[in-house]
């Protein structure tokens, strides 16, 4: 409230924090006369406040009031907690909740479950039963003095957890007589549990005894016996709380007699340098370590450079005579102090490696011949052989030309790449044992002479109807007979050095090969020579100019898209009407020239090519219609301007029917020397003067000799002095 000690009527202005921070009307701030009311005060309302009066209808303000500090204290906050029990909550339990408000005293309490008031609960602590009263709990405090209430607490969820199921684990299982067995019972819970162990289905409780020890969640059977076999399960009871878990799964414990080990030795007998594998096994699964013994003095076999022990296997990497002797083994369970019965002893015998012998036939060999390499040992059968070539230990493997069967390597078609030093080594079938390597043998391969096919006649492109002579050449040796092939199919009747074929029926891919009685018995096949038929070329006829005017020269040109030499035949109107040389008709190579064309020269023309020195004709050309007009053409001359001033430009255009013309321009007289000649139909005079005026004519000409059109009618060009503008 703000007041001024005066009888005047005042309006009041309210300030907060600083002079320019005016407090205005709002949802929570109401100004009525001399009073500012703050409803639902908040921390943001804390600060210094002062006021000032203003006289109504006059510009008079009072002095600022003294500032007053408004301080706001937060309401105390309630909180809910579980007093008992601690940990997970299970069905059937009673839970005590407590509402704590740290500040002030004399509180009465209101409790809520799932936002519904519990009218009968007004104490600081309440007790609820599970599972019926589970839910979200919160509380609030009330008192007579200020503050009259607290803030509501956050909701505390009271969650019922299903009774946990116990899990029983038995290790080891199966167990061996005399072995220690551990049965562990556990729950997935944070509470403390006491466990009860049961055996078989008659609820036979397992109690402490000389061989049975129960500690916490573990039942330990020391020195298991067959009487310990059976079904076991367990159940948990909560310490200090009358809650039992669900019973565990039932586990069947099996107790077996100690197994006997079996020793196998492979290979036996073995060769020096061979890998020998001794395997110790039991019929009772895995998880065994094995101890190895040699001879009767219980000499333990240990790891060494040549002796590797891994799991159930003792491997002798390179057997020596010192490895001969009697071996046996015994199993020890991994992480369990249990030993098997010892195996029966096995005697290992070690023999010296045999030496292989290599033979090569024939040697030297010719390319394409079959070569047989044979590797043998003096120690019986059951050997596979490995073949090597050159000194980099390059292994010879199966391929299209190399076949390995038993003790033999066969090179079916020897090539120069097969030359080199060969040796072999034996490997025992089903055993990684190698014999001593054979002595090396050098195989020499001599290249076969090579056949080649060529066309004797004709040369150049080949056309339907041609006869072609082929020849097979083999440069080395004599006494050859020849075999010819077309598309890899042999031509049985063709055995000579040269053959003649007819086109187009016998076109194709040709090759040859030679045969003889002595070695080499054959040559290499020649490369394929393609005998390709070229379709008869089509001739193309061009006629220039066309149409023509009487007296003009006409050129008809016939061409074939081919690299050969051709002669040409000319026809007019029908097939039997051959155009021959005459006074006006000249034939030179591929060209027919008609000089001084006349109406009788009109008609359809075509041509055909004939090969020089070969009876081959091209396809006939397209037919071209030559037209001869019955008049001499006349040009038409026009100007783009009639009146021209000096310094201007003027363009003359000369038009005539058809194309291919050169234009001739005349001044003053048409029969005078042309002023100029242009390839286009227009002539432009630039920067004209008065002297350029007068009459102009044009005409066109083409061909050799030149054929001229008639002169055009004249065009008058009038040129006057430079025009002047008049103001």
Automatic annotation (TrEMBL):
<feature type="domain" description="Ig-like">
    <location>
        <begin position="449"/>
        <end position="512"/>
    </location>
</feature>
<dbReference type="InterPro" id="IPR050488">
    <property type="entry name" value="Ig_Fc_receptor"/>
</dbReference>
<dbReference type="GO" id="GO:0007166">
    <property type="term" value="P:cell surface receptor signaling pathway"/>
</dbReference>
<feature type="domain" description="Ig-like">
    <location>
        <begin position="633"/>
        <end position="700"/>
    </location>
</feature>
<dbReference type="InterPro" id="IPR007110">
    <property type="entry name" value="Ig-like_dom"/>
</dbReference>
<feature type="domain" description="Ig-like">
    <location>
        <begin position="1"/>
        <end position="61"/>
    </location>
</feature>
<dbReference type="Pfam" id="PF13895">
    <property type="entry name" value="Ig_2"/>
</dbReference>
<keyword id="KW-1015">Disulfide bond</keyword>
<feature type="domain" description="Ig-like">
    <location>
        <begin position="164"/>
        <end position="252"/>
    </location>
</feature>
<dbReference type="InterPro" id="IPR003598">
    <property type="entry name" value="Ig_sub2"/>
</dbReference>
<feature type="domain" description="Ig-like">
    <location>
        <begin position="354"/>
        <end position="444"/>
    </location>
</feature>
<feature type="domain" description="Ig-like">
    <location>
        <begin position="259"/>
        <end position="349"/>
    </location>
</feature>
<dbReference type="InterPro" id="IPR036179">
    <property type="entry name" value="Ig-like_dom_sf"/>
</dbReference>
<feature type="domain" description="Ig-like">
    <location>
        <begin position="537"/>
        <end position="625"/>
    </location>
</feature>
<dbReference type="GO" id="GO:0006955">
    <property type="term" value="P:immune response"/>
</dbReference>
<keyword id="KW-0732">Signal</keyword>
<dbReference type="InterPro" id="IPR003599">
    <property type="entry name" value="Ig_sub"/>
</dbReference>
<dbReference type="InterPro" id="IPR013783">
    <property type="entry name" value="Ig-like_fold"/>
</dbReference>
<dbReference type="Pfam" id="PF13927">
    <property type="entry name" value="Ig_3"/>
</dbReference>
<feature type="domain" description="Ig-like">
    <location>
        <begin position="76"/>
        <end position="155"/>
    </location>
</feature>
<dbReference type="GO" id="GO:0004888">
    <property type="term" value="F:transmembrane signaling receptor activity"/>
</dbReference>
<protein>
    <recommendedName>
        <fullName>Ig-like domain-containing protein</fullName>
    </recommendedName>
</protein>
<dbReference type="GO" id="GO:0009897">
    <property type="term" value="C:external side of plasma membrane"/>
</dbReference>
